[in-house]
What does this fold into?
Amino acid sequence: MSINTKQIFLQLFILIFFYSCSDKCKDKACFNGGVCVDEKCECPPDYYGTECQYKVNNDLCDDVNCQNGGVCDDGTCDCPEGYTGTYCQNEVYDPCDGVNCQNGGVCNDGTCDCPNGYTGTYCQNYDECYSITCYNNGTCYNGICNCPEGYAGTYCQDIQTPISVKIERIEVESFSLTDESGNPADESSLPDLYFRVLRNDIEIGVSCYIENANPNDNNIIGIGCPIMPIIIDSPKANNTVIKIRSYDYDFGSSDDEYLGGYFFDFDNDNFPETKTIYNPAAWHNLKVILHLDWVF
Ligand SMILES: [Ca+2]
Ligand SMILES: [Ca+2]
It folds into this structure.
């Protein structure tokens, strides 16, 4: 080896020595398998940071502990029904908890919605009348139709034929004090009002009278009256026309019919307890309410 060659090797050695002393990665620490290149750590996948000291958190659910059966999805807990909160840690108040609807009832916001025919807080009661229809205004109770007067049959479907109807009382609501000519019904005092009842122009009854009937009073004929009720037989028979005529009673002399009267029938009635007879256009303003008792 010539001197020249020795010098070249020496110089090369010195160059390498100084190069290695000035290595930029010499004091650089790279963690987690990172490799220093030119003073910088090159990190393996899943790590980052100047020294590869941080792990990439690919799984946002790593530290999410969902409770009560909750399932983490993308860092958020999906909670089962009945639980809420970040970690499903809170129980939701359910007003239907402990509400046991019976007979097919369904709890809705704490209240049982019952199927048809069932009632009660828990649908525990069956309405025996649910599927029963009572006709003619009959009312069902405990599965049995109670029929109004004049109707019969399981479902009140049968219309009875009245034997008679009694006019038990006559309530006189309004009347004129004079007859059609303007003459007072009673010369010296208020009229002594009573009624005669005719059936197809044949008299069938006479009421007792109210002495000195006052239009301002509620005049009722019939209470404690010995010739009441006035009985109308077969009131619904065909072509039955009733007439009620008004009179002023004159003690010891012949009475005057003074307000005329009204015709009526029971054809279009059911079996009412009262029948109002009034014509607002009539000059005498006579308005009477008949209180009836039907006999079957
Ligand atoms: Ca009188
Ligand atoms: Ca009189």
